[in-house]
Amino acid sequence: MLLISLALLLVAIALGATGQVLLKAGLRELGDHPPPLAVLKSIVASRLVFSGFACYGLSSLLYIVALSRLDLSYAYPLIAISYVMVAVLAWRFLNEPIPRLRIVGLVVVMVGVIILALSHVRPAREGTQPTPPPVTQNRGSQ
Questions:
Q1: Are 82 and 18 a contacting pair, CB within 8 Å?
Q2: Which of 15, 120, 136, 138 is paired with 31 by a 20 to 30 Å CA distance?
Q3: Cα separation of 96 and 92, whole Å?
């Protein structure tokens, strides 16, 4: 069950990151500093912007399903993976540079995500008792 929940969460994160790149690509079509009304019109007029919003919508739906199966304190921080995905996708498809210092920051984010992912505690099976911690003697009280 955990693997399915994590897969749903990862697909939701990937769709969100894809949505970011599609939005940016669509907004680039409007030129530098487009007027706000043109940006709003692009939601329906630009195939890329509309697709970006569609990715966000689907991402949100999948996230809700994943969240119904995972602790919020576990699932939400994993969304930090999207920072790395967006940077890589922007580099690959939008030709945006990734300076060395940003790479270092992205590595730090991934290390944090890995630590967080390893923190998942499986719930005890119904009808079983968790194993109590071992009892240690306090040497100062003898």
A1: no
A2: 15
A3: 8
40 pLDDT band, cuts 50/70/90, is: confident
Amino acid at 127: G
Is the pLDDT at 8 greater than 60? The verdict is yes
Name residues whose C-beta falls within 8 Å of residue 49's C-beta, 6 or more positions apart in sequence. Answer: 22, 23, 26, 27, 42, 43
Looking up tokens 């990715």 gives 55
Q: According to the model, what pLDDT value does residue 130 have?
A: 56
How far is Cα 135 from Cα 142, in angstroms, rounded to an integer? 16
Instruction: Answer yes or no: are the C-beta atoms of 23 and 49 closer than 8 Å.
Output: yes
Q: Tokens 């996230």: give the residue.
A: 63
The C-alpha atoms of residue 57 and residue 115 are separated, in whole angstroms, by 29
Which residue reads 């968790």 in tokens? 130
Rg (CA), the chain: 22
Rounded CA gap, 13 and 60, in Å?
9
Distance CA 76, CA 117 (A): 11
Place of tokens 């487009």: 34
**Nearest residue to 90 (alpha-carbon basis) of 9, 11, 13, 22:** 22
